[in-house]
Amino acid sequence: MKDKQFLMIPGPTPVPETALLAMAKHPMGHRSAEFSDVLKEVFEDLKWVFQTEENVFLYTSSGTGAMEAAIYNLVNPGDKVLSLVIGNFGERWAKISKMRGADVEMISADWGKAIDPAVLKQRLDQDVNKEIKFVTLTHNETSTGVTNDLKTLNEIIQEHGAISIVDGVTSVGAIQLKMDEWKVDVVVSGSQKGFMIPPGLAFLACSKKAWKAYENCKCPSFYFNFGAYKKSAAEFTTPYTPNISLIMALGETMKMMKAEGLENMFDRHARLAAGLRTAVRRMGLKLFVEDDSIASNAITSILPPDGITVPQIRKTLSKDFDIVVANGQAQLENKIFRMGHLGFVSERDLITAIGSLEMALTKLGYEVPKGEATTAAIKTMLKA
Ligand SMILES: Cc1ncc(COP(=O)(O)O)c(C=O)c1O
After folding, report:
1. Were both Cys, which of 22, 181, 215, 328 would link to 336 (CB 3.0–4.6 Å)?
2. pLDDT of residue 152
């Protein structure tokens, strides 16, 4: 049905109407006092979401731009980078670092698992000469639906002394991440996820410890240059022409986020994820991440039942129910489908999606006890 589409992919997420309307206005001049006032508030709000006192740089790019910004402003060619890889996005840190000319070592876990803190500790304890300068990691691995225990992993990294560079693209605003309190050095994120606006803005915050690495960086990035962004942030502006319309939209969604409050936002995401996991199990389907203690609150990966393919499920949900879910990525393509439940998503949306999935599977010939999964999800969400 026209205009009925509901995106349940892990970004872009649905966008609230106030944000859409803000984007529909003529752009204001990006060097005007009026726009500086908007930026001043947005910069403050970003610090609040990132839970940091440091500046949060606002880049006109997708999330990967902020990942590249982190590596190219901090890492010198030849520096040793340890990349913790649990999926596609963890691999991306390693690829960017290799392209930078870093000496990259990886600790990988099977897709669907989290990094074992003991394995990281053992490796960093061996590094008595402190050759490892940076550790990259993904907080919430969107390709699998696993959330790493960032707090514990970062404690181990800080004990060693390396700089932690964290992908918070699908965790900031959805899953607890206390940047300053946990002493995380660098956090990056993107607009089309927990921030509830379309793709096109990326965010990066960096600690004082990481700033020293920037000062020692022999060939930092030009467009993403930390120094240029810090100077501009102090003047409530940006070094280059920003995506004004997206920033106006961000101003609106930030108001919504503040009205809800951080803890309530995290609780909502946890409640939705728990509801969906209950429903999936009730339907007799298998979760790709069976261990709830590492399962993501932002995205859930589900295996199709025997005899039904991922493309069939995606097609039926899209054609008959206007719900878009994601395929698996890379080695998980056509093995799992992924339902995103981050950002502008409520219990009502989840109930609709679960009911639609029950109907879609029935149409495809898989016997689901009708309504039971939806009821189970409702009960779980009410209890949570
Ligand atoms: C965990 C994670 N990191 C990085 C990215 C890359 O972000 P973008 O596609 O905005 O460049 C994504 C995108 O889905 C992601 O989920």
Report:
1. 328
2. 98
